[in-house]
Amino acid sequence: MSYPSLKSKPGMLAWLLFLFALHLGANTTESWTVLVYIAGDNNLSEAAIQNINDMEAAALPANLTLVVQSDLPADSAYPGGQRRLIRADNSPQITSPLIQNLGPINSGDQRTLYDFATWGFKRYPSDRRALIIWGHGNNWFKDGSGKWICPDDGAQSQLSVSNGQLKGALTGLPQIDILILDACSMQSVEVLTELKNVADYIIGSEDEVPYTGFPYQHMMAFFDGILTPENVCSQIVDAYLESYDTHGSQNPQDYPLPVTCSAVRMQPFEAFLQELKRFSLKHRYRAPELLTLRAGCYEMNHGFCDVDIYEYFGKVNTNPANVLMQEDAGAVLAAWEAVVVHKGNLTHAADIGGAAIWFPWDWQYFEAFWTLYLKLDFSQYRWISTLYNAFPREDCVPLQPPALVSTNYSLGSVLAKLNLPPYPDDTTLEVSIEYDDVIRQHLYPLEWLQEQVSIRIPLKDDALIRIHRVSYKSPYSSSVEFEIEAPKAGLSIQSHPNPVRNRDTAMLRWYVPEDLAGAAKLELYNLKGQKLGSYDLGNVAEFEGSLPFASWSLLGKVPRGVYQIRLKIKGRNCKEKLTIL
Q: Which of 186, 265, 411, 450 could disulfide-pair with 204, CB 3.0 to 4.6 Å?
């Protein structure tokens, strides 16, 4: 080979470009750290040992660091918590070097999982990160047999999805490229919603995972640093399905096992959830039709109450009875297809295998689990309201009354703070104010999932207050009631809140005695006493009145500082110091 002369500027440039190209070619392979968290202190302990041996028997890429933390029973050959750096070996024993012997640990504790992942990714930094959670699973709920998420029989503990423990165990870690859930029934929209900010891609099964788990001997080769994370996901899904086909690596039978597997990308997942929320809010009061369309869907998991997203909404999308519902289901499907990287199954219909969604076929299952379901992050997307309204009106959740926490006076009103028992659909507070001569009623809409509310009840005299909740489906709740004395207030004005941090939501409130009702205006002054502007309120009625900050443009323009607000009416005036932050 002849080399260009370094005395020639064009030749030197060409030579430098050649060396740069060689450097790029030599560094196109990315490094991977794959951590495997094995919660095997239960009846899966022998399968755990086999899977670790499978990892040792794999053709491990040079750029892959594979670390296992296992928790096995005390009578195991590998008892307690052990951390190992996996090295190639074909013997029936686990021979990979023991990095740490942790002794007895609780693999059903979220801190144990968090500590392992934090330690592993810090000790073995790399370009890419994957985490595998290995153990028993059961979607988001416990089925009554102790088989929850990562159960530890020795510690009598397990992780809860609905109580936020699985999410908590993975929150605060470095962003994970691929999360693999090697456990039964974990690929559901409910679980994915809990984990939507944890990883870029999530792999799992919406149905049961056989005892032998994922095919570790084959899938570790995909972490070669050449394949993109998305391609790694697709390869793992295919390898999983092939391993359970007839005479596959995980299946010695003469017939395929009924398994499902999918990989999903989390970046567009929020858009899917928003589309599902739009569908739920729009069609929840026609949900009995949706329950009818559920018939014939493949059912899985506890109580056979889960259906496949793609199969179910595919049926809604082809339902000729409701064209608008068809179109909206099509939008949900389109958003879901953007999420799915790759999916498949053995022995099922072609559209099974993506992810499950809870849709109990009988009221007893909804009634038993809805309070648990309401704790999930997924509940904010309102599918629970669709499920609730799918059942006949005689099947309903009793609407519990609010609980009175406290009452306080403000201007001519009473402020009532109330606790709100959970309920699976929207509710409204209906307040009756019973005076000696008349009854007045007010409605107070409540925010979804609101647990406590403070309401302002205007009073013109002493009264009996009755408050109950109303909803679309359930009968009125019983009421909470209390007698109240009307506050004795003169002409006054207040800012709520004060100081003001958000001018878009702030409010000016005033109280006008009966004898002063009439034409009124507001004036704003600085601390030097200079008038900055005024706002004509027109004729102001007796008792309480209000004006949003946003209605008076001056309040949106003045700089942060301390001011004085004055209310003038019939030659009288009142004032208050106003702080704007």
A: 186
Q: Are strands 356-358 and 32-39 parallel, antiparallel or unpaired?
A: unpaired
535 within a domain of the structure (yes/no) = yes
463-501, pLDDT tens digit by residue?
Answer: 999 999 999 998 778 889 999 988 888 899 999 999 999
Q: Are residues 257 and 291 in the same domain?
A: no
Rounded to the nearest integer, the mean pLDDT of the chain is 92
Range of the domain at 567: 492-580
Instruction: Please state, in angstroms and rounded to a whole number, the distance separating the CA atoms of residues 417 and 150.
Output: 41
**Domain ends where: 268, 301, 334?**
268
Print burial letters for 378-406: b (CB count within 10 Å at least 16), e (below 16): bbebbbbbbbbbbbeeeebbebbbbeeee
**Is there a single domain that holds both residue 445 and residue 354?**
no
**Alpha-carbon gap, residue 472 to 73, rounded angstroms:** 52
Q: Does 300 share its domain with 420?
A: no
Same domain, 122 and 236: yes
pLDDT value at 23 more than 50: no
Strand partners, 94: none
> Do both 242 and 288 map to the same domain?
no
Q: How far apart are CA 323 and CA 319, in angstroms?
A: 7
- 6 pLDDT band, cuts 50/70/90, is very low
CA pair distance 405, 209, nearest whole angstrom: 48
**Residue 446: its pLDDT value, please?**
96
473 and 501 belong to one structural domain = no
Shared domain check, 114 and 203? yes
Q: CA 457, CA 450: separation in Å to the nearest integer? A: 19
Q: What is the pLDDT of residue 146?
A: 56
The continuous run of DSSP H or E covering 272 comes out as helix 269-283
**Which parts of 426-471 are beta strand (E)?**
427-434, 439-445, 452-458, 463-471
Domain-located, residue 226: yes
Q: What is the number of domains present in the chain?
A: 4
Whether 220 and 281 map to the same domain: the answer is: no
d(CA 360, CA 201): 28
Mean pLDDT of 442-469: 93
Q: Is residue 195 part of a domain?
A: yes
**Confidence band for 9, pLDDT divided at 50, 70 and 90:** very low
Q: Is the pLDDT of residue 14 over 80?
A: no
Give yes or no for residue 145 having a pLDDT over 90: no
